[in-house]
From TrEMBL:
Nucleotidase that shows phosphatase activity on nucleoside 5'-monophosphates. It comes from the Archaea. The gene is surE. Its main location: cytoplasm. Its EC number is 3.1.3.5. It is found in: Cytoplasm. Residues 7-173 form the Survival protein SurE-like phosphatase/nucleotidase domain. This is 5'-nucleotidase SurE. It is an enzyme of class 3 (hydrolase). A divalent metal cation binds at residues 12-13, 43, 91. Binds 1 divalent metal cation per subunit. Keywords: Cytoplasm, Hydrolase, Metal-binding, Nucleotide-binding. Belongs to the SurE nucleotidase family. It catalyses: a ribonucleoside 5'-phosphate + H2O = a ribonucleoside + phosphate.
Length: 269
């Protein structure tokens, strides 16, 4: 990288979360970082938009009383220099599997940027279900933040965003990582390997009803703590399960597939 990049940083956990601080510190080494992030927790809001939101200055940039998508639009159109890349995260909890992509506020911020034609990276840290909920520290995000810094510095010039519109990055907690390789990690040790993946299609949701209340249960997270995993090689869930940093290159618009059967139905209507 020859010139410092303009980076717009956001998240869905809120501007005071340790994950966004870890990314701010790492990305400040390779670019000018403008932070425009929700003032409070906006997890799992998807691409919801508020349209009219209050804004306050913050030591990291701007705190917005709205959603991650609000923050991206505000950052691109008004609050900061137009960025070379948008980074969202680092989220407390993984965003892996095809089914979470539309739910996640972290990923949705990257999708919002992609619709503007701006390359983006969403980043998340897997927290085992047995440890949820718990507080996290800036240091625990350092390895994923280092991976994102590496991608911000190198992916645009390597032509990655000529094929992908955004990258979805997920990493394990440092103590869970089965690190191999010969490059130093964020703590000076061996760096956790990075694997290019595709979103897993495993989906295991159910619901129970008691006293007029229906509770939804996402069983997919518990599977990550077992001895085996049904997800095939090359998927994001498999990579994180094996202690690797998963990077899924994705596109924002839904793909349209023409089918003869549907063409026939339309003609007969």
């Amino acid at each position: 990288m020859t010139d410092s990049r303009e980076i717009l940083l956001t998240n869905d956990d809120g501007i005071d979360s340790p994950g966004i601080r870890a990314l701010y510190d790492a990305l400040s080494e390779v670019g000018n970082v403008t932070t425009v992030a929700p003032a409070d927790d906006q997890s799992a809001v998807g691409r919801a938009m508020t349209y009219e939101v209050p804004v306050e200055e913050h030591e990291l940039g701007y705190a917005v009383g709205g959603t991650p998508s609000d923050c991206v639009v505000a950052g691109l159109a008004e609050l900061g220099p137009y960025p070379d890349i948008v980074v969202s995260g680092c989220n407390k909890g993984a965003n892996i599997g095809a089914y979470v992509l539309g739910r996640s506020g972290t990923v949705s911020a990257a999708v919002e940027a992609a619709f503007f034609g701006v390359p983006a990276i969403a980043a998340s840290l897997h927290i085992p279900q047995s440890e949820w909920p718990r507080d996290t520290t800036v240091e625990e995000y350092a390895e994923v933040a280092e991976a994102v810094r590496y991608l911000v510095e190198r992916a645009p010039d390597a032509g990655v965003f000529e094929q992908a519109e955004y990258l979805n990055v997920n990493g394990p907690l440092p103590r869970d990582a089965g690190a191999v390789g010969d490059r130093g990690g964020a703590d000076g040790g061996v760096r956790t390997p990075m694997e290019v993946t595709r979103p897993s299609h495993v989906y295991d949701m159910d619901a129970t009803e008691e006293d007029g209340v229906v509770t939804l249960h996402d069983q997919t997270w518990g599977q990550l703590e077992g001895d085996t995993l049904s997800d095939p090689e090359g998927t994001d869930r498999r990579a994180v399960f094996e202690g690797k940093i998963s990077v899924s290159p994705l596109t924002a618009p839904h793909t349209t597939e023409r089918h003869d059967a549907l063409d026939d139905l339309a003609e007969q209507f």
